[in-house]
Amino acid sequence: MKLLLIEDDQRLADFLVRGLLAEGYNIERISRIDAAMPLIRSSEPDVVILDRLLEDGDGLQVCRDIRNMNLPCKILMLSALAEVDDRILGLRTGADDYLGKPFHFEELLARIESLAQRTGQREQDVVLKLKDLQLNLAKQEVRRQEQAIEMTAKELRILEMLMRNQGRVLSRERILSHVWGVLEDPMTNIVDVYMARLRRKIDDGFDEKLIKTRRGLGYVIGD
After folding, report:
1. Quick one: which of 117, 68, 56, 120 has its CA closest to 94?
2. Strand 53-54 versus strand 74-79 pairing type
3. InterPro entries, alphabetically (predicted)?
4. Quick one: fold of 126-221?
5. Average pLDDT value for residue range 192-211
6. For a FRET experiment, which of 11, 148, 163, 191 has its CA 20 to 30 Å from that of 136?
7. Res 123: pLDDT
């Protein structure tokens, strides 16, 4: 997925670029409004991460320009202006989501993932596949070797997250943030419990085990 970060705080921008690159995203960064629209038109990012208070103006103008031109990218607005009225203004101007500063990096990742899933599923993405495992998102059905597997809503969310990130280790914190909306460690083993359930349903009875634990790091599928 292609991201464009429009942020003039150099320290924050460097941190976000490093972190998002490490998560496997293709990301470009600029700091000024006047450079935004030409780059958005040429690079066609999937998600624009847009600061409100930029050195040469208000990021709301970029938001208006994107919507006036009917460009398909999603907009995640960042701002120290985080009061209810500010968030409402940003959303009414055309932002798809609004995140107040300061924020947790895990929450930013969860917001980006959520926006990516709302960009409109391509036909080939309606069914996620890994070897003999299939997850039909439209029907919320899971099959392995054409055998139907019953899943709870939470299990489906975790499996979808894993399958959208095949080969990438997902930390317990990321899974907590994405599936439960928890941004701090709840001091429970809820993720491990659900992963054990998911592993029994997906892997038990099959020769090839798809879900693996990376000790001290998290979980991965398809590695």
Report:
1. 68
2. unpaired
3. CheY-like_superfamily, OmpR/PhoB-type_DNA-bd, Sig_transdc_resp-reg_C-effctor, Sig_transdc_resp-reg_receiver, WalR-like, WH-like_DNA-bd_sf
4. Arc Repressor Mutant, subunit A (1.10.10)
5. 94
6. 191
7. 40
Which residue is associated with the tokens 């907009």?
A: 75
Say how far apart CA 214 and CA 81 lie, in whole Å: 39
* CATH 3.40.50.2300 domain residues, the chain: 2-117
Instruction: Say how many residues make up the chain.
Output: 223
User: Which of the 8 DSSP states describes residue 64?
Assistant: H
Burial of residue 83 (number of CB atoms within 10 Å: 0-12, 13-18, 19+): exposed
* Backbone torsion region of residue 30, taken as left when φ is above 0, otherwise alpha when ψ lies between -120 and 50, otherwise beta: beta
The position carrying tokens 């624009």 is: 48
Residue 17 has pLDDT above 90, yes or no: yes
All CATH 1.10.10.10 domain ranges of the chain, comma separated, are: 126-221
pLDDT, the chain, mean: 87
pLDDT per residue as tens digits for the range 65-88: 998 887 889 999 998 887 888 888
Q: Which pairing describes strands 47-51 and 2-6: parallel, antiparallel, or unpaired?
A: parallel
Convert the pLDDT of each residue in 18-37 to its tens digit. 999 988 889 999 999 988 98
Residue 66 CA to residue 90 CA, distance in Å, equals: 13
Gyration radius (Cα) of the chain, Å: 19
For tokens 């991965």, what's the residue? 220
- The pTM assigned to this predicted structure is 0.55
As given in the structure block, the two tokens for residue 23 are 């998560």
Q: Cα dihedral sign for 115, 74, 93, 34?
A: positive
